[in-house]
Every structure is written in structure tokens, then in C-alpha cells.
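(Protein data)
===
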Amino acid sequence: ATHAFTNFAGFVQYGSELVPAALIAIGCAFLLTALPVADGEINRRSLFLAGVMFGAAPFAKIQSAPLAAWGLAGGAVVLVAPGVNTWRERRAKIWPLVLGGLTVPVAFFFWVCVDGLLPDFWRSYILNNAQYAGARWFDWSDGPMKYLELARGAGGTDRYLVWMGTLALVGLLWWRSYSEVHRRTLLFAVGMVAAALYAVMAPGKLFAHYLQLLLFPVGLLAGLVTGRCSNALKEKVSDHVAGGWAVAASRQCLRMSC
């Protein structure tokens, strides 16, 4: 919704983050829906597709590489964390995710090598981006203040992040009541937020459109917390009241972000 209805010029006129952000979002959706419910089996097809999305994201924009890396690494940890005692069991769970993550990079490098484009790719996409990131406008020690400056000037993005972040933090107060699966998914979302924060600050430039990489991870964390709180609330009140609470919270967050 933030992307669909914003009229902030910094988002509207420059959207190179939208494709990688969408790939990361779809990858997270595939990963989280692949997790087993109770004692069920993991969905290997969804895990493979999650890996494909994460593996493709850096080729849409290299700045999204930290999010893609956490999607694969954090996803693997989420899969093998509970009750897995042998390496064979671990491999059986994570191989579809790893295989999916390798699919796009291997296909891409095969294509550029066959067409003789590897030197051009290395120079234009790797070395030039490294040089761009090396010419920082501010030191890492100034990162927190520069991040606040960036968010405040980005058309209500600061309010969106504050409300969504507050919603997530409040929900985490009930951490001990969450199931093991839900705890792991929340930790995955927290890691995705951290990776997005790093990706936004890594170039060392104050370009507001970088924040588009952060909007989904923050929304993912808030959504997971809201979903868990809504389920807990339904145990004590009617479905209508619980649903109304979730809708009201979402509408308030969206209204404050506009």
C-alpha cells in the first residue's frame, strides 16, 4: 500500500528498488508458507521458489544482496533449528532452498560466460558498484543520525516506520506465549529488517528511494506480530472482535504513513 498510493517524488520518480523488493517479498512469502504446521512436512516446491526469488534479487539491484543473503541463510536456520539432530536431516530440509538460490546465479554466469560478457559484467556491475559504495558521503558512525534524516524527509516514511516498529515491539512483549515456529519466523523477520537497514546505509548516500528496501521487512515483522496477537485474541473474544482489532490497527498504521 505504501508503494501503491504514495505521491512522494523520491519514490515515484526513482524505483530501481521495486523489483528486488518485490522478489524479496515473494521469496519471504514462499519461505514462510513452506514451513510445516504442527508435525506436517515442509513444502519443498515453495522452498525452491523462495530460493529462486532470493537468488535473483541481487541481479535486479546489487544493493539488495544483504536481504537476499539473509533470506537464504536465515531461512536455512529457520528450517533446521527445531529438533534436527543429524546432518542428513539438515540437508534434507535445506537443499531445495539452496538449490533454488543457486539457480539464477548459475544460469546468469553461464550466459555471460558463453557470450563473452564476463569481463564487462565484472567491471560494470561489481567493480563500479564497489567504487560507488566506497565514495561515501558520511562515515558509518554517522549512520543512525543520517538514517533519521533520510526517513524524516521521505514523505511520511518516518511515521510509517515508527508505527509499524512500535506495533512489532509491543507484540514482542508476549514472546513467551508464542509457539516455536512463530518465534523462528519472528527472528527471521528481525534479521530481514537488520539486513535492510544495512542495505539502505551501505552506499553512504542520502537518497530517499533506498528506503523502499526497508518498507517490506518492517511491514513483515509487524504483520507477523499482528497475526499472532490476533490469533491469541480470538481465543478470548469473538472472531469479529479480533478481526476488527487487526483491521483497525492496520488502517491506523496506513493512515499515519500517508
Remarks:
- The chain has a mean pLDDT of 80.
- The radius of gyration is 20 Å.
- DSSP finds twelve helices and no strands in the chain.
